[in-house]
Amino acid sequence: xxxxxxxxxxxxxxxxxxxxxxxxxxxxxxxxxxxxxxxxxxxxxxxxxxxxxxxxxxxxxxxxxxxxxxxxxxxxxxxxxxxxxxxxxxxxxxxxxxxxxxxxxxxxxxxxxxxxxxxxxxxxxxxxxxxxxxxxxxxxxxxxxxxxxxxxxxxxxxxxxxxxxxxxxxxxxxxxxxxxxxxxxxxxxxxxxxxxxxxxxxxxxxxxxxxxxxxxxxxxxxxxxxxxxxxxxxxxxxxxxxxxxxxxxxxxxxxxxxxxxxxxxxxxxxxxxxxxxxxxxxxxxxxxxxxxxxxxxxxxxxxxxxxxxxxxxxxxxxxxxxxxxxxxxxxxxxxxxxxxxxxxxxxxxxxxxxxxxxxxxxxxxxxxxxxxxxxxxxxxxxxxxxxxxxxxxxxxxxxxxxxxxxxxxxxxxxxxxxxxxxxxxxxxxxxxxxxxxxxxxxxxxxxxxxxxxxxxxxxxxxxxxxxxxxxxxxxxxxxxxxxxxxxxxxxxxxxxxxxxxxxxxxxxxxxxxxxxxxxxxxxxxxxxxxxxxxxxxxxxxxxxxxxxxxxxxxxxxxxxxxxxxxxxxxxxxxxxxxxxxxxxxxxxxxxxxxxxxxxxxxxxxxxxxxxxxxxxxxxxxxxxxxxxxxxxxxxxxxxxxxxxxxxxxxxxxxxxxxxxxxxxxxxxxxxxxxxx
Length: 676
Known about the structure:
single chain, 3 domains
């Protein structure tokens, strides 16, 4: 190969003179009226401008980047340079024996820790534990000195810790042999509506810190971001609320004479990771920057500041529950893979992946295995554990990290100005902010701007739901039975109640008694409202001979008819209709013949805008001649089509999905599914 004169461009277009970034930026602004950044980027639901263009000096503008540092700014400590994380397997099957099978298999096949989810405190399927014997069954054959345990979510973890103490006593195992965490975040529990009044909630949490002194490898000061994430918060809102929760916990616990070093040594931040890949990587890295800033505002008993670095606290990542879908649930495996990659690249210390069918049913062995193997592939095949802070130095990710950190800190300051996170929750300020973001998320799904593969795009037309959605958004119920509160909000009281034969569900119900003055944040999935459309069709189909029949009618120019037929199929498939999609029709009479033969309830004409003026009235007349009563739809925007009033509805880009499909269901005589 002949050598090329590289000039000033390294071999690319040497005939053109070099243009410096400033001149180029001025040219873009003069031509477009916008700066390059404004022109080439947009603001996402995560509240940060996502840059599509970055110049080589971008890192100089990122406040957290130290170009002269000897190592990347957010990597692990010098004595642990690798990006290793703990592979954690969630346990959530309600049958203790089945959960034990999952636990044994997980430990035998690569899991290093188990996350125990208790049914009464979670909207997910969870472990049904009533007494110490149930927990003993779940953990039978598991070496607790080798396998980490992460206990429960919210206030349920306090009762679970009591059961665990009984099991350890029976096995003659000391607390000092344990490692893992106890998931009682009083602020998160208050925000979720699963906690007693604040004083009781913080008292139980502080008791756990004291009780775990004999377990130096168990983290008993969790700060749980999932409650804000699951309600639909943006990355900025999630980070700001997490900082607010950390501030509340440190301030209240130190006021109750819990030493600051003890709190920090036991600190664990639990972070859900969603499918917005690069933003989620940046979110974890921004968290590493922000937590030390909060801690720096506190002093120990000697009034000395406590220095905490970005790598000095434990980050437990978990795949997102709000991104899970009921339809085409195997796609959840792919979502979990990208979420897990983001968590690892963002520098998590431990990771838990939900089974692909967690939104549908208690997990089976297959779902649990795939969740575990996803992590094993990232670790042992992709070798993600070999590079320290792998995202460091990326213009894009470092810029996102910096912008997220700055915006989250500004919002955190607003929360503090209101009196702190609990006051922001009592006033409803945070709930309103998250509700607005949640509305925007759902609007993006409804307008098909936010893609949910298998749900809003490319639905599997032959699929029925695997199970009904039985999960509640509210706190657990006591089944109408009043439960007397414990005599004191203490672990001793919990332990005494367990030994006296009081079941764990009753203990948890008693702990949750008392007003909090806080409207709980809901637990949502992004796909819920769209999935409800298909569930309605399926309910209709069960009472009739099947779902409504849709015939697509491709006529006219090949390019237009094919593209629009595909689009109409994907949109109407969201509702679960039975769709026939011939390659083409030669005439409107052929369409009318097919519609009559197939007893089609809906016919959708797919052609070019110019052709609709003739085809729409002709097809309407042909259907009338066949005495076939069907709704006539047109694939295209009504603004661009002269259909002379012959169309009953239109299918086009940017349509409001929920309104369009529910209106179509109404016109087809589909009664709304009644809640029981």
